[in-house]
Amino acid sequence: MKRLLQQLTQIPGPSGYEHQIREAVREMVAPHADEITTDALGNLIVRKGKVGQGKRIMLAAHMDEIGVMVSHIDENGFARFAPIGGVRPAYCLGGRVRFLNGRVGVINQEKTADPAKTLSLDQMFIDLGGADHGIKVGDVAAFDRTFADLGDRVVSKALDDRVGVAVLIRALRQLESTPHEVYFVFSVQEEVGVRGATTAAFRLAPDVGIAVDVTGWGDTPNVPPMVDVALGKGPAIKIRDGGMLADPRVVDWMISTAEKAKIPYQREVLLAGSTDARAIQLSRAGVPAGTISIPCRYVHSPSEMVDVHDAENAAALLAAMLSREVPF
């Protein structure tokens, strides 16, 4: 799992520019797929199981990551930028970004910015290292940070949601057979409004939908007792988030499977934020949907942290669920 996470997180893929990560995932899943397609928006859709058998199940994990887009460049090679997704100013200062052509830039703020006031992106710039940089208005970059192995925990940029991508890949590899028609959707543009999952769900018209994504954490100092989720205690079964009430039948299916397979799990109530499951749930006439979450510290920072055992257990839970009949 660690090696897989390292491979996935180091490939750039800001929302709308997921082509490099999509091709890498395609190579990883090809030996285990019954069919692979890419839709017009760029979602990678991998089928496992015979068409028409059992339930049509859609799994979704998004390939895209937050990033920046250049909006203006002055004659000295300082670029203003717009966020792609939920870029947090507090995590930007002093950070590095890498453009798709390989050029690296450093984010800093105007000298006149008041350090006592809240940072804002419009007071920041990317230092491209001089006028000879080859970057143009509209070019995009992802945050640049190396992968770190801390034992049970790993740290990297883009674990939101490359850890979900890794879980889907691992579950697909573990799934020798399934009584269902299962679609592993590696979705695009989640960070800018669950766009890929929206179009994929409309196309597939699933009977059941499950997203795999990160969630918040409640196990660092002085965190308000609002998120009862910790790293290393198993994947979190979402009951509610800021955009979705998980279908109780899907929640019960996840919990009963986890308990039968003796897979550790947590119950998750997230107060803000949502996942691709929201888009699946609201597709067409509605779809029973839920989410398996990976607890992740410092979400939307260049140094996100997950416990590899949570990811491994999430993959085992998915494989167990897909190997049995859906109980509703």
Please, could you describe this protein's structure?
The chain is α+β, with helices and mostly antiparallel strands. The protein folds into two domains: 2-65 and 157-322, Zn peptidases (Aminopeptidase), CATH 3.40.630; 68-143, Elongation Factor Tu (Ef-tu), domain 3 (Beta Barrel), CATH 2.40.30. It has seven helices and 17 strands. It has helices spanning 2-9, 19-29, 159-174, 195-204, 248-260, 276-281, 308-322; strands at residues 35-38, 44-48, 56-62, 67-73, 78-84, 96-99, 104-109, 124-127, 140-143, 148-149, 153-156, 181-187, 208-215, 236-240, 266-269, 289-295, 304-307. The strands form three sheets. An eight-stranded mixed beta sheet has the order 1-2-12-3-13-16-14-15, sandwiched between helices. Strands 4-5-8-7-6-9 form a six-stranded antiparallel beta barrel. Strands 10-11-17 form a three-stranded antiparallel beta sheet. Strand 4 and strand 5 (78-84) form a beta hairpin. The longest helix is centred in the middle third of the chain and has 16 residues, at 159-174.
